[in-house]
């Protein structure tokens, strides 16, 4: 069963917030929080980011760093939402390759370095927008497959859940996000793109960040660049 945007708006206001604190590789989640995922500022209360111009939109991280995970290109990778994805909206994944001479543990991910690798999105029905990531059973894990042609190297992997239950006007979208540190192996030779920056990739008035309840939406365009599939 899937729910329409109007029903979701009413239901989501009473639901919990969440954080993405564990990495999943090929279906196996890490046993503890913040092992390969950089600790985020919402580690205690699970609040989201609402300012698209804030540097928090990049990785929302506290001081300090995490370890790293090694994963082969073509493998499945994802994140655990501690409370489940309890707000309606899309989930998107980005990656950024650590530049030569920089350290995975300390690189801040600044600049036009991020490319989108996956979108867990929407379907349109007569009742509006349905979100497969938001179901009555509450989705706890969100994953994607690393493109087979991704070049080997050190990467930040960024997950974002865009909560649209209060996004009837610009500025109402909430972002639940974090970044993991991974070392990708393989022999890929692709050129990921297009590239964007956080902050910078989104504007507060982007259509994908504003979703009216009425009139019923007849389309939805996610914010950010197209997905690079390799």
Automatic annotation (TrEMBL):
Known EC number: 1.14.99.56
Species: Cudoniella acicularis
Record localization: Secreted
Location (main, coarse): secreted
Source species taxonomy: Eukaryota, Fungi, Dikarya, Ascomycota, Pezizomycotina
Cofactor: Cu(2+)
Catalytic activity: [(1->4)-beta-D-glucosyl]n+m + reduced acceptor + O2 = 4-dehydro-beta-D-glucosyl-[(1->4)-beta-D-glucosyl]n-1 + [(1->4)-beta-D-glucosyl]m + acceptor + H2O
Domain Auxiliary Activity family 9 catalytic: 17-215
One GO term of the biological process aspect: cellulose catabolic process
Stated name of the protein: lytic cellulose monooxygenase (C4-dehydrogenating)
Similarity annotation: Belongs to the polysaccharide monooxygenase AA9 family.
